[in-house]
Amino acid sequence: MLTKKMVKSEAWEKLDVYDMGTFLHIAIEFNGDNKDDLSLTYKEARWLMGEHRFKQSIDNLVNYGFLDVVRSGGVWKKCNIYALSERWRRYGTGEFIKGKRFVIDTKKNCDFQIDTTAPRAVSKSSYTARSAVKE
Hints:
Helix content: 25-40%
CATH topology of the domain at 4-97: Arc Repressor Mutant, subunit A
Low-confidence stretches: 107-116, 118-135
Distance between the termini: 35 Å
Radius of gyration: 15 Å
Structural class: alpha+beta
CATH class of the domain at 4-97: Mainly Alpha
Strand order of the largest sheet: 1-2
Strand content: 5-15%
């Protein structure tokens, strides 16, 4: 949900028009009960911006505390699931908690995360290609 306090926040000032548009298109899916079950697919975002710019906007929304990634579905050809976050309220303070851009569904028996502050840096903990395809 977009609020006056959010729009006047230090974190919101860091966003560009593409980031704001991406946030609004994800946030309008919120119906009161699905705060952590929202999506905007690359296909749906195609009319807003290119794929690279969309990825960058999601990264920014996670990095500045507006979204959390619940599930990264790309590896399994599923949509990404996002949650609206309140982390933006603490942006710029020592209490700010960085979000993770990639989260693998724990039911898949693997977990790896990519740190968006260091592009393409992968930290592994029990991830193997074989464990990624197990059902």
